[in-house]
């Protein structure tokens, strides 16, 4: 009896696995789907138009709709097969289709952004300007799905959507960057698009080779072209490798931060609701939201120290503690439910005891279904916690118009990266909260003052300070707040202040309400302490309205 070696058995299994693949049919299908055609250009343009509108609206649902339409799979699979075959003619055909599609997509994206009123970069846009490890993994798995779908003839539509997920939104963001002349957005989105395109193409090439649809050895006449292509790809891989390295460090850093915060939360019976991490020079900026039963004033300081010990470098933590207090919430629910019975009063003292934050005044109108809660000046928590409370109450009591009015506090400054005027995703969230507070205060107008560190952009540093102020102003205007941009550069004694407190202190913009009362007008001393917070005053008319609840 003859025994077949293990290696021979594997070869038999593999040949049987490949026996039902019609190489000629697969190759013909790839060639047909990957060529340039009018339907391809039309669908690319329509898909990018939908994606651009989704990005401007910050709507994930609309962006997903664009992915369902985008016909990106055909030319990219053809490019992957051309790599597997080392066929320059095939690569040229796929390249022509891709270039035409990219050009059409960019033109429609630029046109839409130019025609539309100015909309600051939303979170959906900013998230596609910094490629990370997960973006690369999405592209790789999309390429695996596409290669398998084409070769096996299964799941082609789903694989096409996966590829569009990795390519169409970044391409639309590239168009946004060009239209707004924002180099940071353009370069970041371009790098993401290029990373995903190459990752998908090479993964498809791997699948083609795996199923025996390519060739490992190129003919002698194509050898120099293959070497040249390899050199080009190697050069393109340098920034991608750097980005991947940064992504790995960022992922590790975020995991360490999350571990520290979750350990602390579990000890205090709290829940980590939200975590945002980004790097500014040598400082890690962390924004965390904890759902807790009891507010701890010193918790932020303790956690920042713990994070610095874990990461062994400077950390700036902004911790928002939201008191959930289930029993207190039940009492508030009872008060609102009782409001349907006009005979039942709502004593302010009882409401103060029930509300999870200290109240100054409260007003519940049962006829109009409106409620206004003026938070006491004794509240020393963060504004996002109050905004979250208002959102929670609105969801809990549909049909009611509920306002949680924060106490008169200064709004946080909006920080920027060195030499940049682009508002980060972290600060978009911060601006959303600031706009909410201004609207609750019924502020008519604000001044936005931009700053810059000394010689931050050489001869254009003053323009940089103005650009920062204008970026914040445009965001506030989009929220219906009249914002006036101005810049202060340089600040008196700025050189000494930078040596003492660092350059990052001046890379920001401040929001101040106007008009000032005569005795509150900014002085030269205010400019010396450029980033010192300026207190706000709640308009008297709002105070008069809310004081009615005391009577």
Order of helices and strands, N to C?
HHHHHHHHHHHEEHEHHEEHEEHEHEHEHH
Give the second-level CATH assignment, the architecture of the largest domain. Answer: Up-down Bundle
Extract low-pLDDT stretches.
Answer: 339-354, 516-551
- Structural class of the secondary structure composition? alpha/beta
Helix content: 55-70%
- From the spread of the alpha carbons, the general shape counts as elongated
Domains counted in the coordinates: how many? Answer: 3
Widest beta sheet: strand line-up: 7-10-8-9
Question: Would you kindly provide a written description of the structure presented here, covering whatever features stand out?
Answer:
With 551 residues, this protein is an alpha/beta fold. The chain folds into three domains: 17-217, Glycerol uptake facilitator protein, CATH 1.20.1080; 326-407 and 543-550, GMP Synthetase, Chain A, domain 3, CATH 3.30.300; 410-535, OmpA-like domain (60s Ribosomal Protein L30, Chain: A), CATH 3.30.1330. Helices cover 58% and strands 12% of the residues. It is built from 20 helices and ten strands. It has helices spanning 6-19, 23-34, 38-57, 60-69, 73-85, 88-115, 123-126, 133-152, 156-179, 183-210, 220-267, 299-311, 326-338, 348-354, 383-396, 425-440, 461-478, 494-501, 524-528, 540-546; strands at 271-280, 283-292, 315-323, 359-365, 370-375, 401-405, 414-415, 445-450, 482-487, 508-514. The strands form three sheets. A four-stranded mixed sheet has the order 7-10-8-9. Strands 1-2-3 form a three-stranded mixed sheet, with helices on both faces. Strands 4-5-6 form a three-stranded mixed sheet. α4 (60-69) packs across α9, α5 packs across α10 (183-210) and α9 packs antiparallel against α10 (183-210). The protein is elongated, with a radius of gyration of 29 Å. The N and C termini lie far apart (104 Å). The relative contact order is 0.07. Mean pLDDT is 77; it is low at 339-354 and 516-551.
